[in-house]
Design goal:
Layout: E1 5-6, E2 9-10, H1 11-23, H2 32-47, H3 53-64, H4 66-75, H5 80-85
Antiparallel strand pairs: 1-2
Helix pairs in contact: 1-2, 2-3
């Protein structure tokens, strides 16, 4: 098995699933510990694969945008439609 893969799943795909797992908490009103656990799992996965610069960038982006991600998690509201029109 190559280094960037674990159990047949590419490391990048696994990181994506961890982020989706975190974002699935939108409008769910989970305990803060659940949010912290999922965020930590996402950061840890990325930190464990520093040889993949895309995962380092993902962790940095999540950290930079955490306030906006938290707002989405609380409200479930995004600006995706307006951003889609700005091409």
């Amino acid at each position: 098995m190559s280094a960037p893969q674990r159990r047949g799943i590419p490391a990048g795909r696994h990181a994506e699933e961890k982020l989706r797992h975190l974002l699935a908490l939108a409008r769910a009103s989970p305990a803060r510990s659940t949010i912290a656990h999922r965020l930590h799992a996402c950061y840890t996965w990325c930190a464990d694969h520093p040889y993949l610069p895309e995962l380092v960038t993902l962790a940095e982006t999540v950290a930079s945008w955490w306030n906006e991600i938290e707002a989405f998690r609380l409200t479930g509201i995004t600006n995706a439609k307006s951003e889609g029109n700005n091409f």
